[in-house]
Design a protein that fits this description.
This protein is mainly α and 326 residues long.
Length: 326
Amino acid sequence: MTLRRTLLVLALSASAAPTALVAALLAREGRMDVEVAAVAGALALAIALAIVVARGVTGPLAECVNGALEIARGRFGREVRVPAGTELGDLAYAFNHMSRELASYDAENQRLIAALERGYLDTIRSLASAIDAKDPYMRGHAERVAALAVEIGRELGLDPDALAALEYAGVLHDIGKIGIPDAILAKRCPLAPGEMALVRDHPRIGAEIVAGVEFLRAALPAVRSHHERWDGGGYPDGLAGEAIPLVARIVNAADTWDACTSDRPYQPAFDASGAEAILDGLRGTQIDPAVHDALLAVLRRRASPGVVPGGAGPAGEPDGERAASG
């Protein structure tokens, strides 16, 4: 508005000189009646022209400013509509060209980011496969945990970044087992105290492996804390309740479900109803009640026609499963 007022004043000032000249000439001839009418007409014309000029300049400029603000907000590709044939039209043409180029660059960047994220996920899936190769009973476990953890996260209304962290965490939660002897992981009888201590060290080992990878930062709490219990009786840090990161609480529930519904050296798989009974007993002790309820909601959906909840659930590991089954 300041520019428009300035242009209006300048246009009126520019028209004042000829208007005053006409008034002076008429006054010399003694034609005051004609003078008044002429001056009034000249002023009216000057005002009209000033308004037209002001709008003609400030309108296109305002359009360009609005377009620039849209670009600043990340809405690339926004174009302004300014008639060509003037310097302002040339400015608008250059702006539209820039906007189209930015939209093209943004689309390419998004494509590259998506490809990079897929590469990241493929890499961590390869790491998870290394764990599966150590223990045939664990084959597919990490993928199932990741899938179920993401579904629980959606049920809880988590945002896309949190869901991505859950996927990474589900795939990598057992990565620390890469440092545990195969004979211990596949042992069919109860573990000796020293062996159990080794197994229980895998969250710490996994956290150390993941800690140096920036894009896995959001998954790190679940890798370290997925064996913490809601009542504080878990490991490695003895966290309880809300002090346990939400991603870890979700992976814990998914891990336990998969432990119950998969064959393991020390325990055959439970059917869906048997596994749900076990999880009901862990609600409020091992498992966060809100996460437990979200898990059950996901399982109910999976049990709808055409979907069987038992084999597609996620998450479990020898020590966790042994603990869950007493």
